[in-house]
Amino acid sequence: MNRVSAPVVTIDGPVGSGKGTISTRLAARLGWRFLDSGALYRLVAIAALRQGLAGDDHDALAREARDLDCRFEFDGQETRVWLGEEEVTRELRSEPVSLMASRVAAVPAVRAALVQRQRDFRRPPGLVADGRDMGTVIFPDAEVKLFLTASTEARAERRYKQLKAKGERVKLSRLFRDLAARDERDSSREVAPLRPAEDAILIDSTELDIDEVVQKAYVVVHEKLSKD
Ligand code: C5P
Predict the structure, then answer these.
(1) 102 CB less than 6 Å from ligand 1?
(2) Distance CA 76, CA 54 (A)
(3) How many domains in the chain?
(4) Which domain holds residue 32?
(5) Ligand 1 pocket, 131 CB below 6 A?
(6) DSSP for residue 128
């Protein structure tokens, strides 16, 4: 274990694999801090949309990432997010922001600008880090690495229910298409593509409910930490 800083559990996987909910619950159960790394890319996306920046203006996007003025408040259940003085918790998950986030996340200079900011979340008593490259790039020495998957259909349906519950008007077929496009972009980009770390434990959540996955993850973490 990296005792100088703190233990880290990384949870990577595609959108809709359930990792957001699972990471949040696991962090609450362990009493650890929580990093939603996707939120950082989403914040850069909101800042870029506000400024009217184009997805291919790499220098300007990297500047937004470097100068990002944001704040997270995790109350053990949900994370509220601020960009400057403005709360953007709801807007963060909207479809336009999701699409732009996936674009800005493919820009190497944006990713580089966010590396240290993510590592700074690693503080006692421990960190649960949720993302795409947590186990491969940001915390390669993590104590436990999990990689969550689920079929594209299952993931599109989960996302559909989430957005509907929030009162957003969405079409399942459109979500399915957007999600497949985003998967493709996340997996094929040159920098930090979405893939499991070699030492990651794979969990397919298609047929499992959230509680089962959280329990599975908790047991793995508990066993690992009591061995070290
Ligand atoms: O996880 P979430 O859907 O909130 O992430 C938003 C976008 O940020 C994703 O489409 C993905 O492209 C990107 N991302 C990333 N690396 C991470 C977390 C998110 O590239 N560690």
Answers:
(1) yes
(2) 36
(3) 1
(4) 8-223
(5) yes
(6) E
- Cα gap 85→107, rounded to integer Å: 26
Ligand 1 atom nearest to CA at 134: 21
**For the chain, how long is the longest CA-to-CA vector?**
51
Instruction: Report if pTM > 0.70.
Output: yes
**38 CA distance to ligand 1 middle (Å):** 4
Q: What is the pLDDT of residue 200?
A: 95
The CATH number of whichever domain residue 115 belongs to comes to 3.40.50.300
Is residue 1 one of the residues assigned to a domain?
no
| Tokens 């100088």 -> residue | 4
Q: Assess whether the C-beta atom of 135 lies below 6 angstroms from ligand 1.
A: no
Query: Does the beta carbon of 13 lie inside 6 Å of ligand 1?
Result: no
DSSP string of 178-215, one letter each residue: HHHHHHHHHHH-SSS-S---TTPEEEE-TT--HHHHHH
Give the residue, by CA position, lying nearest to ligand 1 atom 6: 38
Distance 228 CA to ligand 1 centre (A): 31
pLDDT tens by residue, 75-98: 777 789 999 999 999 999 888 998
Tokens 């944006």 -> residue? 110
Q: How many CB atoms lie within 10 A of CB 115?
A: 13
Specify if 141 maps to a domain: yes
